[in-house]
Every structure is written in structure tokens, then in C-alpha cells.
Amino acid sequence: MTDFLQLHFLTFYPPSNLNRDDLGRPKSAIIGGSTRLRISSQALKRTWRTSDVFKTTLDGHLASRTQRIGEVINEHLLAAQVAPEKALKITREIIAVFGKPEEEKDKNPLFTKQLAFISPEERAAALELADRMVADAKFDAKKQAGEILRRSDTAADLAMFGRMLADNPDYNREAAVQVAHAVTTHKTTIEDDYYTAVDDLKKPSEDAGAGFLGEAGFGAGVFYLYACINRDLLRQNLGGDDALAGLACAALVEAAATVSPAGKQASFASRARAEYILAERGTDQPRALTAAFLKPVGEAEPDGMMAASIKELTKLRAALAQAYGDGDGPTAEMNIHTGKGTLEDIKAFCRAGV
Fold first, then answer.
1. What is the pTM of this model?
2. Which residues of 205-226 are buried (b: 16+ CB within 10 A; e: fewer)?
3. Which of 62, 126, 187, 313 sits most deeply, having the most CB atoms within 10 A of its CB?
């Protein structure tokens, strides 16, 4: 039976534009016939992966998603006094391990065409391989691909969020963490902020108009976020390192609870922390609780939208458990409005049993 860790968060964001669409407006979704604000899972995962929480908790175990590994290798070879033409040739042979190189005639011949998730150990192995190719002109980089790519097992974010290498599928990593798009629990209206910028050096004798006129969309609301961690797969992706898997789970829950997406923060300062967290552990088939908000939480709720959202979420969980005869695995809860639980309690729960 697969061991899952399911995480549910309720967070209130004030007026904000955390995740924009192609028109610069807050992303949205239609749920239950009403418009909700939305934050994409891609935006959330990048926010967490690049956060200080991850950098501190998982120091030395974070990969880089880049097209530029060739620049690192080439600079290493040039610093070792390798001739530029030879350095370029060696670099292009090695980066082919991670993805198809750009054409040599292109602007960036040291880039791969695709972004690749590369662990610190893989980066170090690529540099070692470059040195060996300098010493032995007959050394074949492609035959050593496995020597490089099997070193991904110490990168926690790679293990959590996965990797696809089209040219080396044996070294793909299935993501151990699934993240839903965060959506508001209630109806929302995207509003427009009309703003101006004034030229500080404009003279009173000139016109009184602004130097710039602009418009930006924004919205506010209580967001529900769901994430599911396949802890068995996480352990497998990390080469059986239970301690690192536990740290990864703790880092994920802390980042999700405390780190806000960076979109338009300078304009809205819309930083927030989760006000409610529910963590579930066990072998039951995972399920999100988004359906609790299929009927949007109403504006006239006597205890406010956050309390009503918590009530609806826990009510649906109980109903599903009764109907399906599951949901009796261990749980941990944090509710800042009732004083129940702490973030440290949730982190300890997420680390336990890994």
C-alpha cells in the first residue's frame, strides 16, 4: 500500500495580483458557476522551490533548473587554460547528456534547447567528466551519461517535483509531489486599479497631467490549496534516504504555509500565512477537498469567510470518510483562530514515519 501525506491550507490574501495571465490580470477559474481567483501550481512550486525555507532546510540538496549548464562547464575549462575551440567542443558533448544543444551557429551554442533539472552532484560530475575529456581525447561523454545522471538522488526538489529528459528517459524522475491550483472558496470579482505616475521635475507652468497612466487588475479572498506527497516515491527518488525525505516534507509544508508568490508584491505587499492547515497521513486513496467550496462560501457568514471555509472543509472530509469507510489515519491540525496546533507540530507530523 502506498504511503501518502495530504496537505490542506486555507490562506487569506488581501488585494493582490500574485499570478497573472497573458493580459496581466489575476488568474481565475469558474467553479460551481462562479468566478474564483486562482494561483497556478507552477507559480506555487517555483515560489516554494526558490524560497529561503528550501534554501535553509535543504541546503546542499537543491537542483537548478537551467539551460545554462554549458556556461558553467565552459568557464571551468577556460579557467583551466583549455583552448576555447576545444572547450566548446567538450562542453557541447557533455551538455547533450542533459538535453539537445542549441545549434553551434546559434547565439547561445552553450545552451540546451530545453530546461533541465540538474542536481549539485550532477553538476560536479559534469565538471569531472570535462576534465577527463581534456586528458583523454577518445573519452566518450555519451557513454558516461549514466555516471552523471545517476547522481540526482540527493536533490530533494528534483525528487519532489520530477524531471523529464527526453533524450535519456531512463533518468527521468516522476514527481512525488502533486500540487493543485489554489482557488478562492467564495465568489470573487477582479477589480481594476487605475494609477498614475507623476513627473517630479515637471514645472507648475506645464500641464497638470501625469507622466504615465496605467491599470492593473487585483482581487482578494480566502484561498484553498491542496498538495499530496507520495512518500514511498519520495523515498525512492532520494535513494532511500529517509532523513532527507522527512526534511523535504517539512520544508514543503513550511514553505506552503509561510511563503507568498512574488507577483506584484511591490504594489500590494500581499504577503500572508496560512490560517488553517490540515495534514493527513495514511494509505487511503488521496482526494482533494475542493468540492467543499463548489457552493461558494457566502459573504454573510456570521463568523466570517475563513471560519465558514474551515467548517465546510472539515464537514466534507467527515462525510467522505463516512461514505467510503476511510479517513481514520493520523492527522495534525493548525487553526490560529482556535489556538489549536502550531506549524512546528505540523512539520513534526510530516517528518514522522518517513
1. 0.90
2. eeeeeeeeeeebbbbbbbbbbb
3. 126
